[in-house]
Specification:
One of its GO terms (biological process) is DNA repair. Helix content is 41%, strand content 19%. By secondary structure, it is of the alpha+beta class. The chain has 3 domains: 60 residues, Nucleic acid-binding proteins (OB fold (Dihydrolipoamide Acetyltransferase, E2P), Beta Barrel); 68 residues, DNA polymerase, domain 1, CATH 1.10.150; 45 residues, Helicase, Ruva Protein, domain 3 (Orthogonal Bundle), CATH 1.10.8.
């Protein structure tokens, strides 16, 4: 089992990134909460990982903190919640915000996340209420340490739209979310963060 990786950040194109560990490039999927904490391309990074073995692929997921990975693993145990939905939850709100939704039975906030309907939101509240007591609190919403630039030939807006689609939003919704953000001078990660925050805070 691969539990942690430390190496050079080769690229980050949400929701995918690659880390070079002694000449071996590991491709990972990660929630946006992790992308906000990544250094610039070429920087050193340490990620906690979760390896999912499927019939058609081995998929490695990366997380900025052990508590973030623990929440991801808890979410996978909820009936009807897969890896894609778990990543969408971690991308749309911090672990602390998710815990608050569960404590307050705030299914309305959960339904705003892609792929989560009313029944799934209710199931999350019921099944996660006791499990979250075992989760260590985090410091809140992660903010980007540095702006990234020049990582893709695409524009930050198009990168942001692509990432939102990968998280489960419909193309029209993803475009609308990005258009609602003042994008000038922002990196794709910052645009995504603002777009997701706007949806959750409605």
């Amino acid at each position: 089992m691969i539990g942690r990786l430390s190496g050079e950040l080769v690229y980050k194109r949400p929701p995918f990134l690659m880390v070079d560990v002694h000449g071996v490039g590991y491709e990972l999927e990660a929630p946006m909460s992790t992308f906000y904490d990544l250094p610039l391309q070429g920087g050193q990074v340490t990620l906690f990982t979760h390896l999912a073995i499927r019939d058609d692929a081995h998929v490695l997921y990366g997380f900025a903190s052990d508590s973030e990975r623990a929440l991801f693993r808890m979410l996978l145990k909820v009936s009807g919640v897969g890896a894609k939905m778990a990543l969408a939850i971690l991308s749309g709100m911090s672990a602390d915000e998710f815990s608050l939704c569960i404590q307050r039975d705030d299914t309305a906030a959960l339904v705003r996340l892609p792929g989560i309907g009313k029944k799934t939101a209710e199931r999350l509240v019921i099944e996660m209420r006791d499990r979250l007591d075992k989760l260590e609190p985090t410091s809140g919403v992660s903010l980007p340490r540095e702006r990234s630039a020049g990582l893709s030939a695409e524009t930050p807006q198009s990168d942001a739209i692509g990432a939102l689609i990968a998280l489960g939003y419909k193309p029209n919704d993803a475009s609308r979310m990005v258009r609602s953000v003042e994008c000038e001078g922002l990196s794709s990660e910052e645009i995504i963060r603002l777009a997701l925050r706007a949806v959750v805070m409605k």
